Each structure stands twice: as C-alpha cells, then as structure tokens.
C-alpha cells in the first residue's frame, strides 16, 4: 500500500490508465484538427471525436448531437446559465438556483443579476435537500431557468431531480443541472430525469482535466444557448474553439468505462464508504453531514466535534482528504454548504470529507479508519473544548471573544 | 501550503499539554478565541512567590499553526518572570515558527492567551490587570 492514500475523489479523480492509452495517439500520430474536413489528418481526429461524443451521449441517455464539448464543468455552467439568460431574455429574466450550488453556478447567477436578471437562491433543509414546495412557490411567469445541482460536491446529497424537473416544466421553464459529481457515478438519464441542460467534466470521472461537456436538449423542447465565446462556430455554434481532441477522446473513453463499470463500482464503493462511516461514527460526538438515503455512493462528510478540521487533517498526514474548515482558505469562513444546512460554525470547522474512488482499496479504507480515529483522539487530548465538554460545561453559555 | 518543520515538530510532539488547577491562586488561566472562528486556546501558568513562572500548560482547538504557537509559548514562558513574559510579542512566534501571513492570527491568539493568563494571575493576587494592547485582528 502506497502512502499517502488519496481520498479526495470529489476534488478530482486519478485518470484511468485505459483513458490515457486511448488519448496518447491523438497527441502525435493523430494530431489533426477535427474541423479539417478535406484530408486524412482531419478525418482521423474527427473520427476520434465522433466516437467520444457517442460514448458521452450513451452514458447519459442523450443523442450525440446534444453534446457540446467545453473546457470543463465551470465553462459548461457558465455557458448554460448566461447562454439561456441571453437567449430567452424576451421570455423572462428570472432564474432559480440554490445556496449549496458550486461557485461556478452561483457566480454565473451573480453575473446575470448584474445584467438585469433576477435570481432566487433557495435554501436547503438540514439534510441538504431543497424543499420542493419552496421551489414551486418561487416559480413565476418570468422564470426561464431552474438550476439545481444533481449531487453535491461537499456532502454528496442527491437532489430530487425528477420532481424538480416536473415542477420546472409545469411552469414552462428549462431545467439545468450541474451533474459534475453524479455523471459516471450513478445512473443519469437526461430523458427519464427531465433534464434540459447538464454540465459535467472529465476529471471527476477518471478522465483528463480541461475537458467537459454541456448537454443541450434538442427535442421537446429544442433548447438553445447564446454562445459565450465568438469564433469559428464549432459545436453547433454554441462553443467556438478548435476541439481539444486528445481531451475529448479521453472524456469519451472515461464515459465508456463508467457506463460499463459504474454499477459494480458504486456497489463496491458504497459498501466501503458505509464501513468507513460506521467505524468513524463510533467515535463520540461525530456526525454525518447531509441526507444519507439520497447520497452519492462514494462520499461521506463527517464532523468530529471539538477538533478543528485543518488541525485534524495535519494529524491524518497519510490521508489526502478535504475539510470544510475555514483554515484551508484565506477567508476564515467555514464551508458555506455546511453552514446552509444549519450547522454551527464550530461543527463546520470540524468537518472532513472522505471521497472514495475507483482505485480505493479495502486495505486503504481500513488504514484510513485507524489513522482518523487516532488523529481525532490525539486532537481531542489537546482540545480545551473537549475537556470542557467532558466536564459538562455548556460551551454555548461561554462568552467567547470573537476575533 | 506546507508547514515549516518547527510547526510540524510542535504539532507532532506538543510540549506541555495539560491542565493546571485553575482555582489555585498560583495559577493564571487565559482562554482566548472562539469555536466559531476555529481557534480556542487555553494557556495556564503556575507562578511562585517571586513572580517567576515555574510551569506552563496549554490545550488548543485549532489548526496546526495554532497548536504549535501555543506549544512554543509554554516553552518560552517557563522560567520567565511575569513581567518578562508580558513582553513576548506575536511576531517573535511568527519568526520562530516561520508562519505564513494567513497564520499570523494564530500567533496573535497565543500572545493574547499569555497576557490573559498573566492578568488572571495578577488579579487573583491583588495586583492590577495590565493594559493589553487590543486588536491585532
């Protein structure tokens, strides 16, 4: 077993060696521009892109003409939100999203607000899911788009996508979802789910970084987005720029592998995740964040009360995980996702996200359990808050000097 | 962000972790920070009749730099008079531990904890509390 152990698969995944093998020829022998229609070099590149497009489409139950390749999920989110806002401005200017979205969605919405758009930011319940009645109540005649993520990147909760789509469509709006964490991990079917636009990316599904896609529905209804980049009119005019052929080929291969192996993988990972979670919540005062019934199979976000996340990660030096603690960022604010679940700041500071992946082994999970337990106990021995808790002192009644 | 070797050393082998009897008149306790901010330090000193610090203990809830800052503070406090201890400046801690700018607040907290502990001792023993230059943060 090699150390450190990578358990941060919601940040990025290692590339599958089979993906790399598929990509390599497109860096040299098949270097052509996929838009060169009149010679063999172009044809070879185009063939690679076509196959990839088909694989990506198949993974999500789409038609290949509905796949727009981009540089990643951030670009896809931006193109979807800004592109719909521009394209449908005669119909309305109202967008509904939610507070636990990724910054790519939230900041694209903020941008739209500057352009005269109105955005409703739905809150979430304490389990991280949105309240469907609240969504319904927020819909207006001016609503053109509802943007709610599929699976959350910090806590892994899966939103009720089909119900959200139904409410959205009943009011004549489009439904967009950032499915970066879900595609390739759980079955996503754009037709069964009622999705009109969907953003996702290669590097969260064992593909390369720098390549992603936006699904744009072509039928019932036919959806269009205004291009955000001017140029040669690639990708049905929605995203100009010479295609990143090796990246796209990699994304295609990654999608193919996910489609074929996802079911088995999800079963294996959810078992491992459940074991990790069960073992770690044996520790006193540890809490799982977010709904555990509607959750991605490979992630568990756990708060260990009375220890601080960054300090804890330092003790878990052989584990690569991530924390909602402020100390990992310059802002000193703990995770806005955890706070929006109603978690107090100190619990948000005490959270660790474990993200398992395709290459995570049983042995690694066992090691992670042991090291995490040791680290939590070590940090609690150092923690004045733990001592006070053990003495029965109510920490909420202490007047802390905020700094 | 990588931690300096000294931070890692103090974090891995923290000096003087523990608790002194806070009801004793010889003991001064400083509890600073807030759980919401992700740092709480408790620093305690034991002082003899000549106002010399004979023992120091800490417990800290916080990141590695916060733990290292308080661990270092306890090392420096032992053997100092309370007047000399009052002169410990947060920038001395920053320098010793090579803390990056985003972690300077950890050293500030340690300085605050030292001063709070000394003042607690002073007040307990009929001395007036010393003015603490407030708010680096």
From TrEMBL, chain A:
Instruction: Identify the taxonomic lineage of the organism of origin.
Output: Bacteria, Pseudomonadati, Bacteroidota, Sphingobacteriia, Sphingobacteriales
Record key words, sorted: 2Fe-2S, Coiled coil, Cytoplasm, Iron, Iron-sulfur, Metal-binding, Pyridoxal phosphate, Transferase
Enzyme Commission code = 2.8.1.7
Q: Which residues form a coiled coil?
A: 255-286
User: What cofactor(s) does the depicted protein rely on?
Assistant: pyridoxal 5'-phosphate
Report the subcellular localization.
Answer: Cytoplasm
Can you name the source organism?
Daejeonella rubra
Q: What pathway is it annotated to?
A: Cofactor biosynthesis; iron-sulfur cluster biosynthesis
- List, alphabetically, the NCBIfam families matched: IscS, PRK02948.1, PRK14012.1
Q: What is this protein called?
A: Cysteine desulfurase IscS
This protein's GO cellular component annotations are: L-cysteine desulfurase complex
Q: Where is the chain membrane-spanning?
A: none
Chain positions recorded as [2Fe-2S] cluster binding sites: 327
UniProtKB/TrEMBL annotation, chain B:
Q: Which Gene3D superfamilies match?
A: 3.90.1010.10
Keyword list (alphabetical) reads:
Iron, Iron-sulfur, Metal-binding
What InterPro entries does this protein map onto?
Answer: ISCU, NIF_FeS_clus_asmbl_NifU_N
Which GO MF terms does the UniProt record name?
iron ion binding; iron-sulfur cluster binding
> The NIF system FeS cluster assembly NifU N-terminal domain covers which part of the protein?
2-125
Q: Which domain of life is it from?
A: Bacteria
Report the record's Gene Ontology biological process terms: iron-sulfur cluster assembly
Q: Where is the signal peptide?
A: none
Record flagged with keyword Metal-binding? yes
Family from the record: Belongs to the NifU family.
Described purpose of this protein according to its UniProt entry:
A scaffold on which IscS assembles Fe-S clusters. It is likely that Fe-S cluster coordination is flexible as the role of this complex is to build and then hand off Fe-S clusters.
* Official protein name in the record: Iron-sulfur cluster assembly scaffold protein IscU
Question: From which lineage does this chain's organism come?
Answer: Bacteria, Pseudomonadati, Bacteroidota, Sphingobacteriia, Sphingobacteriales
């Amino acid at each position: 077993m090699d150390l450190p152990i990578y358990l941060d698969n919601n940040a990025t995944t290692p590339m599958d060696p089979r993906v790399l093998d598929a990509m390599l020829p497109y860096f040299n022998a098949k270097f052509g521009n996929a838009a060169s229609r009149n010679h063999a070099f172009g044809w070879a590149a185009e063939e690679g892109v076509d196959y990839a497009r088909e694989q990506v489409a198949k993974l999500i139950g789409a038609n290949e003409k509905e796949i727009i390749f981009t540089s990643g999920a951030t670009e896809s989110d931006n193109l979807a939100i800004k592109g719909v806002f521009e394209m449908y401005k005669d119909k309305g200017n109202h967008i509904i999203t939610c507070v636990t979205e990724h910054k790519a969605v939230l900041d694209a919405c903020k941008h739209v607000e500057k352009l005269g758009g109105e955005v409703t930011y739905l809150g979430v319940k304490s389990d991280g899911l949105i309240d469907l009645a609240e969504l319904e109540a927020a819909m207006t005649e001016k609503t053109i788009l509802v943007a709610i993520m599929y699976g959350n990147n910090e806590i892994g909760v899966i939103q009720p996508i089909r119900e959200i789509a139904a409410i959205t469509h009943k009011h004549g709006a489009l439904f967009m979802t950032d499915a970066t964490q879900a595609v390739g991990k759980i079955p996503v079917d754009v037709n069964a789910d009622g999705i009109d636009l969907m953003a996702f990316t290669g590097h969260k599904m064992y593909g390369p970084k720098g390549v992603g896609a936006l699904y744009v529905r072509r039928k019932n209804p036919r959806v269009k987005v205004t291009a955000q980049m001017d140029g040669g009119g690639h990708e049905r005019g929605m995203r100009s720029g010479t295609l990143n052929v090796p990246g796209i080929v990699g994304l295609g291969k990654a999608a193919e592998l996910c489609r074929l192996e996802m079911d088995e993988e999800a079963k294996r990972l959810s078992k491992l995740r459940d074991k990790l979670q069960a073992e770690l919540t044996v520790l006193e005062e540890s809490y799982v964040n977010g709904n555990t019934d509607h959750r991605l199979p490979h992630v568990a976000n756990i708060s260990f009360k009375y220890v601080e996340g960054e300090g804890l990660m330092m003790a878990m030096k052989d584990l690569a995980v991530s924390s909602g603690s402020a100390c990992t960022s310059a802002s000193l604010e703990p995770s806005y996702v955890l706070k929006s679940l109603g978690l107090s700041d100190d619990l948000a500071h005490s959270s660790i996200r474990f993200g398992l992946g395709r290459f995570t082994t049983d042995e690694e999970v066992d090691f992670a359990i042991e090291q995490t337990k040791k680290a939590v106990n070590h940090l609690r021995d150092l923690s004045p808050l733990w001592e006070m808790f053990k003495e029965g002192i109510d920490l909420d009644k202490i007047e802390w000097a905020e700094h | 962000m990588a931690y300096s070797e000294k931070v890692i050393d103090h974090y891995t082998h923290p000096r003087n972790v523990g608790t002194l009897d806070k009801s004793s008149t010889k003991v001064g306790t400083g509890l600073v920070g807030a759980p919401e901010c992700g740092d709480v330090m408790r620093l305690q000193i034991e002082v003899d009749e000549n106002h010399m610090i004979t023992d120091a203990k800490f417990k800290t809830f916080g990141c590695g730099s916060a733990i290292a800052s308080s661990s270092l503070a306890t090392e420096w406090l032992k053997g100092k008079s309370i007047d000399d201890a009052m002169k410990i400046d947060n920038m001395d801690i920053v320098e010793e531990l090579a803390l990056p700018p985003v972690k300077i607040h950890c050293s500030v907290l340690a300085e605050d904890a030292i001063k709070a502990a000394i003042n607690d001792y002073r007040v307990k023993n009929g001395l007036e509390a010393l003015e603490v230059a407030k708010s680096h943060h």
